[in-house]
């Protein structure tokens, strides 16, 4: 088995190191990851500037590339140019910080997995619900277990799994829960600064608002209740319930 590993925290991040360590006994690993952190870049790809690629000395007999681009660039370039044969699975993470609810629209971690399923290759995105902790023991066990499951039980070709892991001891974990996306809202605070040339710029210092959701089938609540949240995400964003209603508009009118 062959797994392509990527992330959005950069190729030197601790999360991707722990991800690779957890998967080495499961499959052959190729790493294609950004040279530096690309968090919250969404599904951006590089279409004007050249993408610089360099070999990265990972050691452990692992083929690794550092990409001067986005997580989506890493997967797109890896699948189309850097790998001789398609991998069996693409795994993105382990991200520092959860990717819950509407976070997936901004997340580079999830976007890398989305790029994989665009290429008809199954994908998993892993995030750990902490920004400061460095204990990846539970996360490593979860990664290893779910990747083995994914390699033997394939999903629909247009679906990835977004997996969020609570930052707790393994003894505190209640189990795994298949979830749906919640709605995560933020208080966006932009702090105004001035550079040396007296030009104004802004830094985003927003923080997630406390959720008042109670639906236990939502990813946000599952994590809060010490479950590993597994959310199947597919590429079709169509709101099918509204197609008929939109068709009720006078769309055949050419005199507008």
Structural overview:
The strands form 3 sheets. This protein has a 9-stranded mixed β-sheet with strand order 3-4-2-1-5-6-7-13-8, with helices on both faces. It has a two-stranded antiparallel ribbon with strand order 9-12. It has helices at about 15-25, 70-80, 110-120, 135-150, 220-225, 245, and strands at about 1-5, 30-35, 55, 65, 90-95, 125-130, 160-165, 175-180, 185, 190-195, 200-205, 205-210, 225-235. The mean pLDDT is about 90. The protein is about 25% helix and about 25% strand. The chain has 6 helices and 13 strands. It has a single domain, classed as Survival protein SurE-like phosphatase/nucleotidase (Stationary-phase Survival Protein Sure Homolog, Chain: A). Helix 1 (about 15-25) packs across helix 4 and helix 2 packs parallel to helix 3. It is of the alpha/beta class and about 260 residues long. The protein is globular and about 65 Å long. It catalyses: a ribonucleoside 5'-phosphate + H2O = a ribonucleoside + phosphate. Its EC number is 3.1.3.5. It is found in: Cytoplasm. Its cofactor is Mg(2+); a divalent metal cation. This is 5'-nucleotidase SurE.
């Amino acid at each position: 088995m062959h797994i392509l590993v990527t992330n959005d925290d950069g190729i030197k991040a601790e999360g991707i190191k722990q991800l690779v360590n957890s998967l080495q006994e499961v499959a052959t690993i190729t790493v294609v990851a950004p040279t530096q952190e690309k968090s919250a870049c969404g599904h951006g790809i590089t279409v004007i500037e050249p993408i610089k690629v360099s070999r990265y000395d990972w050691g452990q007999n692992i083929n690794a590339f550092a990409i001067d681009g986005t997580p989506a660039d890493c997967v797109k370039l890896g699948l189309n140019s850097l790998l001789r044969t398609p991998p069996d699975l693409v795994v993105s993470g382990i991200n520092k910080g959860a990717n819950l609810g509407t976070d997936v629209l901004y997340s580079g971690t999830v976007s890398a997995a989305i790029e994989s399923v665009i290429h008809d290759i199954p994908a998993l995105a892993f995030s750990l619900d902490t920004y400061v902790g460095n204990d990846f023991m539970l996360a490593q066990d979860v990664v290893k277990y779910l990747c083995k499951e994914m390699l033997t039980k394939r999903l629909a070709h247009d679906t990835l799994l977004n997996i969020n892991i609570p930052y707790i001891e393994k003894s505190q974990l209640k189990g795994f829960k298949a979830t749906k996306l919640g709605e995560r809202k933020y208080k966006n605070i932009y702090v105004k600064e001035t550079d040396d040339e007296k030009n104004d710029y802004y830094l985003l210092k927003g923080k997630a608002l406390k959720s008042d959701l109670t639906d236990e089938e939502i990813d946000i609540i599952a994590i809060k209740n010490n479950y590993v949240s597994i959310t199947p995400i597919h590429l079709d964003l169509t709101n099918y319930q509204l197609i008929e209603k939109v068709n009720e508009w006078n769309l055949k009118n050419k005199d507008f």
